Amino acid sequence: MSEHRPSLAVVGATGAIGGVMLRILSQHADVWGEVRLVASPRSAGRKLTVRGEESEVLALTEDVFDGVDVALFLVPDEVSAHWAPIAAAKGVVVIDDSAAFRLDDDVPLVVPEINAHAARLRPRGIVASPNCTTLSLIVAVGALHAEFGLRELIVSSYQAVSGAGRDGVAALREQLALVAGTELGTQPGDVRRALGDDAAAADSPFAAPIALNVVPWAGTDAGDGWSSEEIAIREECRKVLGMPDLKTTATCVYVPVVATHSMSVHARFENEVAVAKAHEILATAPGVVLFDSPASGDFPTPSDVVGTDPTWVGRVRRSMDDPHVLEMFLCGDNLRKGAALNVAQIAESVAAEFPR
């Protein structure tokens, strides 16, 4: 008798994260039966390649979930909010990459390296994957927490423009083309004046020029001066680690990098810390690469980390003022572990639940 393997739908297959997901499905051990590619009606009929075979993209409708066991949702919040419950009502296990369900008490928020067990309890039939910034951070911090007991996190993020979608990448490339070869960046406001309307175009997700600049605002207004991205890091870290009272604060900044988020992390622990022990933990933690010899020029940077799966950690040092604090710098590709890879890992754990 042939082995039964669960069927899979990839919703949002034609998007940037969808493209990464198709590559991951083609690279990982093949645990799936049929793989159904789904997107908006305007993308229906396109042909994409997954697992070495060309497949036609289907329009997102209720019927597209008939016969599907697991569905990966790689779509905007509003699309997931509408369609994920429809798929779940048909008995499909939904793994959602959007923010629509991350803080829902009846939806587990899962990082397989940290809390894989949580994916098994899903009252709504939905499992959520955290924000890309949280994911780049949590695998390293979670490993250290297991040894030292985390008590406080202060994070500054340096986020790639792809975190704002294709419009973010387009805005950066267009603005770089306009400033390349100039002497801009030496006088107040000269970059903004040179870019003119391009710096605040309707399709630019940034409120200020991103070329030759950094923009200290990611997400939407969450009130009291905080952005939605900053609140997401706080609440998602608390939920994944099971620490609802964890002191956490973040400042999120866009930088002129296409892909891979970076973070400066100040982590305070219950127990005293030692760099040698932290190195040992990080060097053996799943999903983490320790790259930490700054005197030799060895530390993670976005341009070196992009396209890789792990979170890379360097500049690990104990605070000079508090023996309970570790300072570190880390980088993680926001389209791989920060999005598609984590969803794929959750889905693979769910696939293992199906009878063979």
From TrEMBL:
It catalyses: L-aspartate 4-semialdehyde + phosphate + NADP(+) = 4-phospho-L-aspartate + NADPH + H(+). InterPro entries: Asp_semialdehyde_DH_beta, NAD(P)-bd_dom_sf, Semialdehyde_DH_NAD-bd, Semialdhyde_DH_dimer_dom. One of its GO terms (molecular function) is aspartate-semialdehyde dehydrogenase activity. It comes from the Bacteria. NCBIfam families: asd_B, PRK14874.1. PANTHER family: ASPARTATE-SEMIALDEHYDE DEHYDROGENASE, DEHYDROGENASE, PUTATIVE-RELATED. Belongs to the aspartate-semialdehyde dehydrogenase family. Homodimer. Keywords: Amino-acid biosynthesis, Diaminopimelate biosynthesis, Lysine biosynthesis, Methionine biosynthesis, NADP, Oxidoreductase, Threonine biosynthesis. This is Aspartate-semialdehyde dehydrogenase. Its EC number is 1.2.1.11. The keyword Amino-acid biosynthesis applies. CDD domains: VcASADH2_like_N. Residues 7-122 form the Semialdehyde dehydrogenase NAD-binding domain.
